[in-house]
Protein: Magnesium transporter MgtE
Amino acid sequence: MTIETQEYLIDIVEQGNEKALRTTLASMASADIAEYIDENFEVYGAMALMEKMSAEQQAAVFGYLRPNNQQELARHMEVGMLAKLFRDMSSDERADVYAMLNVKLQDALMRRMAKTERDDLLMLASYEEGLVGSVMTSGYASIPLGVTVETALYRLRQSAPEKETIYQTYVVDKEHKLHGVVSLRDLITASPDDIIDDIMVRDVLTVSPDMPQSEAARIISRYDLIAIPVIDKDRLLVGMVTFDDAMDVVEEEDTDTMHRSATVGKIEGGFKDASPFTIYRSRVNWLVLLVFANIFSGAGIAHFEETIKAYGALLFFLPLLIASGGNTGAQAATLIVRGIATGDVFKSDWPRMLAKELLVSVALGVTMAISIGVIGYWRAGPDIILVVALSMLCIVLVGSLIGVLLPFVLNRFGWDPATASSPLVTTIADTSGVLIYFGIASAILDFSVVPG
Amino acid sequence: MTIETQEYLIDIVEQGNEKALRTTLASMASADIAEYIDENFEVYGAMALMEKMSAEQQAAVFGYLRPNNQQELARHMEVGMLAKLFRDMSSDERADVYAMLNVKLQDALMRRMAKTERDDLLMLASYEEGLVGSVMTSGYASIPLGVTVETALYRLRQSAPEKETIYQTYVVDKEHKLHGVVSLRDLITASPDDIIDDIMVRDVLTVSPDMPQSEAARIISRYDLIAIPVIDKDRLLVGMVTFDDAMDVVEEEDTDTMHRSATVGKIEGGFKDASPFTIYRSRVNWLVLLVFANIFSGAGIAHFEETIKAYGALLFFLPLLIASGGNTGAQAATLIVRGIATGDVFKSDWPRMLAKELLVSVALGVTMAISIGVIGYWRAGPDIILVVALSMLCIVLVGSLIGVLLPFVLNRFGWDPATASSPLVTTIADTSGVLIYFGIASAILDFSVVPG
Structure:
């Protein structure tokens, strides 16, 4: 929403002109109103604003609110009003909100619902977060086998208001087993007397409710689908995942991957609203772990204390060399991790990726060896230049290999490849860097010059 | 696609049973066939396979192929066949393919096209990559103001085969100015005699062709749209961006952001197919730049050579401290960069984010100071422990602040916040870390003990 719209709404709210407020709200998108409420959240203000909207808009706005604000509002609302709101929400959002209410409120709501609604809600709320079942909706359109196009269209018209989309209609038998799908496009271009069975598509892409939601999202994105049906192991139709939910899932998963690649754990409900303690918790474990992991680098440097004392000039190049290994490794790891996540790179591609990275890293290593050689020219003699240039080449090579291989290795052991985060790769590359640098230095310098 | 499907297709192709091949291809999704061709790419094999498909499927499969394979095929195809393929492709894909052909082929194709098609193609191909104009399609459905629902439905039925979607229809006047939008859902639930003007939505969300494509994608995702109309400055309707293109844009942008956050430049056409030279070029600049940036760390360490020689134990803790500043900074920067990219964090939020990060980083700093203190207990005396614990606290604090502020600062100067990549933050944090560590060490140790 533009800042102007925000400010305009703030003005209208402050003026207290109820009619103007109603008109303004009716003309606004639900996502924008929800953003306004989220940004200026205060329970009673939010409830007063909601009362100025139609029932449908109330439900839509409520569905867009941040989870903790939904929870706050639900707690302060009269049960009757909450039940009304519930009825107008889409079935997947309803299940999400239901799952976060306390038991007392859940019971009170249940008592106000019809049996079919209740069963539907319990079914949807029973799936663990992250699974297809938790993002699917039961607001799909379905028609029985054998009806004509005319009948199908008539039924769709009748049921349209309760459905999330009618652009895909699922064709089912008496047991609700999925037999095919027909798009509204095909329905309106077919002849009214055609039988559904003859125009429906039988090869339907489906997902199951206990699949990871990210998999469903990738299928929807890959095949450009508006929605995908969810069927259980007996091919019974249990729900549908729509493209807009898939977009949200992809965004959420990408956020998790990016955070993980900087050793930040999962933050439920978004970073902006997270409490300092939540953020602390999501970051502290890896940070402390990495402190301990760096003991190896420390021990490596300490081991070469005598060499360092004899050749003080080596210290100058230490950060340049160590950082380069880490940076090259982080580049390689990021390319592979993202490639695996988008399905561009397969698990079996590692030999090809490794071969290509070897080529690239030799070229990078040579370029960087020349760079550090040029820098070295102003700081040290030819023997030190030889040591740092050679070390740079080796460190870049080793850093790259760690960066390419670590994601595949983690994947092999069932870990998320994104755990091969830049900091982890950097830490491992650092230790190797220290050993390579001082190893090469001891070998070359101790033979050519006797330390004084 | 499952590995089974892949292998099955390979079998069928090898058997050379043409009828079986045709049936198999007809039953497969275009995206899957394209993947098969991409994975086993060979020009003549691909052309032979394409010949076994219907014209529509050929166009769809071609549209899914990787850009370099499209180019390769187009170069080897007869112009007549390419022109036929062109006619069946969606207008945005057609423009993409056209843009990468050589001038001779472009001319040959142009001569085989009707004037309106030609104008359309030239218009779409004229937009720079990354702008809305380059992803929009002219395959939208439109109807004039004033028609009845019945007429609208009749027209949609007639034109459906050429349209990318008919679920959104744009209502235009004689000059093709956009006045409203009507969904197919609303059309089929309305009465046939209703006039479009009365049922259309007038408050239409629109984008302009020279907006960044990522902005259009974020609007589509935020408002859960199937498509968004593109209008020029005179409100003339020039195209439409569909949800599936938006998904591709989001994925591509996220890939770019992730790459940039590890100092990898933009790689056109995907990482997997990129030549080693392309990958080298996308990585070398930042790496070399960072080598030079690390000179400051090196100079810092060199400056404190005497302190280090007097207190060799300090060396052991060097990597632990330096890495911690970089890691904390990378965490903070990643959270902010992703927050800005998804619209969760606004540019004006920086004071709030800074305040929260201060709280979090004090807590993280204390935890890590205790960790390094415990490690120090086994390696050094109380004075050194005091130095390293105090340094850790300061380094973590400074690292976090750099991580939070850098993205906002870059954004302020019109740079992409993702340029505040982990390696850049790490490099800056490293230099500060060296100065803080040895600064504190000199201050505390040189006063308490006289180096021997």
